# Entry
Amino acid sequence: MRMTGTGIGQAVAVGPVARMPEPLATPADVRSTIGVDAEKARAVESLGRVARALEDRGAKAGGTARDVLEAQAMMAEDPTLSDSIDELLGQGKTAERAVSEAFAAFRDQLAAMGGYLGERAADLDDVAQRVIADLLGVPAPGVPELDEPFVLVARDLAPADTALLDLDKVLALVTSDGGPTSHTAILAREKSIVAVVGVLDALSLADGETVVVDAAAGSVVSEPSDDEIAAARARIADRAALVDAPATPGALADGTAIPLLANLGSSKAAQAAADQGAEGVGLFRTEFLFLDAGGSAPTIDEQRAHYVELLEAFPGKKVVVRLLDAGADKPLEFLNDAHEENPALGLRGLRALRVSEDILREQLTALAEADKVTSADLWVMAPMVSTVEETTYFVSLAKELGLKTVGVMVEVPSIALLADRVMAEADFASIGTNDLTQYTLAADRLLGSVASFQDPWHPAVLRLVGEVGAAGARAGKPVGICGEAAADPLLAVVLVGLGATTLSMSPSALADVRASLSRYTLDEARRFAETALAASGAAEARAAVTAAVESPKETHS
Amino acid sequence: MVTRTVRIGSSHGLHARPAKLFTQAAAAAPNPVTIAKGDGKAVNAASILGVISLGVEFGDYVTLSSEGDGADATLDELTELLVTDHDQA
# Structure
């Protein structure tokens, strides 16, 4: 039987079902035999114990899970809830019953509000179950503990369950309730677990039966045929091979080299990126050096030590370092302490560095010194450049201070439109697609209400990328992409078709992008780029290219 | 009685993490504080369930109230939390 829900991610899993224990029965509404005060003491004690246990689990889990578990701990000791429990106890109810009724009242209130709040109802149910289990002296409901890996099937998973999941044991998650914003979905995404949520009939699955969970198709197949199992196993093996394969240099099907580089935020991650097959670094962010330094800029010596550590991880390889990009979402008081109404349009990036030129000079000096004592091929680039004049200023200053290869980031439409004149001055350009999208669509990338505009598939953004790509080709200079767009395996091909000569991304995306590039020739990539440019919007561009990819290719015999 | 009317800056509204941070701060404040959405009913700002159930979204206006010594400082601190976007990381 095939059931459907909302898949999270692209992977597939096969394995035996393990069901979450069903919730405890609702405590019976019987009169207390020990009196109001004694019941009250029991309730307070259990609520406190559960709150402390949730806090402990939060501290162990860390990250997003910690916030959620701490919020649950606060729910257990919520003053409004406590008033409501006291009132129920005053009517002569038992602690179990009072806790159950009080939580249920809040739960119904949240569930009735629907959407995001409705999904928080599961958090509250979970706390109630834990408190009632504590009062009854039975183990709290939780994730089953088995020796063999399993597919966990549950009504919905509470944060406390997902936080401590043993990932080596969980092949996949299937829930009957919960939507794409439920905790199960959020944590599955964060921890890369195969998951299908909101599968209505999921609870008809029995312990031990084998299922195929396909997140890409959003399906769960029970009693799968041998062929279905074999197909799933083949996909799992392909995927593992992709990740484990000795990383070959990025290239198209016709052999055109497209070096695949890593985006890094600290020199500590450099070695891991090299191990994952990064052919260098396409974007090294230097903000952490300045954010960690406290209220002032780090010294030249401090900076040089970090740059040397980074460059030593990539001997003989290209490493592109972005100068300090402060402002907007990363304010640094020593660069700009003025309150701005529109920080994304304010004194940020190169604009801020130019005002504090001593900081810019020091950073360039530290980089030049690190370059002298290492063998990596160091390139430097300035963030948030919006005019040709700024390009000239930055390139001449960096060269004066001893840097050999100097370029600019293309994040502002103005500079993409004047790419020919920019490429005459700079040695290379690197396109930051996140900011380029934000500025092209005039939609604050940090604002949830306009998040739908933040899509780099938009033909307006792609046309600007194409301008830069064409200018780079005419000038014989490289054009890189270092935004999240490069991590989208299909969009990566389109970007190459638009003239990108290197792609830089978070190291975890390298394997998928490498595999995608190897499927298409440069001519095909250019054809996909034309298809995307001809679309009227982001969704249409993505759909048109997806259709073009899936239509039968001319066979090369 | 001191009151402040504040526009919510958190892009996901006053749920989950922002609600937790706000409630923790309200519970730690020396004066009891209430919060109301628009001209709705005021709830205890130290109650995470009360705060979440207001269903406050990005851009909504809420009114904080408190009284006694230090109420001004308490509300200043809580206002700062509400206008900040905690969901941008």
